Amino acid sequence: MLTNNREARERSVVILGAGGFLGIAVTKAAVDAGLTAIGVVRQPQAAKSVECAGGVAVLGDAARPESWLSHATRAIAVIDVVQPKIPRRLGNRALAQIVAQRVAATQAIVAGLTSIPANGRPLYVNVSGVAELLPDRHGFISDASPLTSRPAGFAKIGLGARRVARDSGIDAAFVHIGTVYGPGKSFAERILPALERGRYPIFGKGENRIALVHVDDAARALVHVARLERTEAKIASWIVVDQSALTLAAFLTQTAAAIGGPRPRRVPSWIGRVILGSGLMAELAKDVPTNANRVRASGFEFQFPQFRDGLAATLSALGRSSSAQAMNAEVHT
User: Fold this and answer.
1) Where would a tag sit more exposed on the chain, N or C end, judged by fewer CB atoms within 10 A?
2) How far apart are CA 306 and CA 284, in angstroms?
3) In angstroms, rounded to a whole number, what is the distance separating the alpha carbons of residues 275 and 17?
């Protein structure tokens, strides 16, 4: 429930990066929750997408707070889903540039928010992956996980932005989401076609567990956290992943089977490093056992708790037929 102070303010959220794959889903989720969704986008075409999703589009730039700050003063939260563009091959130089851009953008966002008086300042919802977290004492990536002191790959991006927000002293919720899949972005545009043609291999053994979440669940969870009482929302970390606990090999094999593609072949890890770059290959090979108990305990329910459920919905949304037998069968790797 909203506090009296927040009830007196406009029931809205500002979404930075609203024109992206996740941003559009967050816009829809906010509207479905009865909020006014103010979507900040840079391009007119993206503005049309926000409006089609039921939001109010604002042409601006997340890194230029003057373009959206007037809306933030009346909002309960600013949800930052700005996603850096990741090249198909990610080397050290490209990664360093992305880190610098993300840190600079977060510094600008935080500077804008700190200009709002504390008693009227919205919650800042900082969104990243799970790469910057270490396993907790039970061996899982969870809300109790410590931050890594030796970031590598994507962890450098998320950790740099998180430190900026943390050090600013503003009220912030840090939400760590799994690899987002759904009817759009790289999953639909690159992974599915490649698997269908037998051109997306399993690099290495593929025995590492991966963290997954359907785009609709990721979006709904972000809005859910944004609407919690401030004292509950601004805890150390929120983990938003489904309960699949699939290995990389099972994920690829199950998806290929569902669309009628050939079983993915295995290739050595060093080939992956050549093709994808050391940065992307390191992320692909990480073992990520996760625990999202806290977000569920807060009242959030996943619409797609298992990957097979989300995959079926994704293929249906894309107009693709799927094999129910393939998705319900155990995948041996």
Assistant:
1) N
2) 20
3) 29
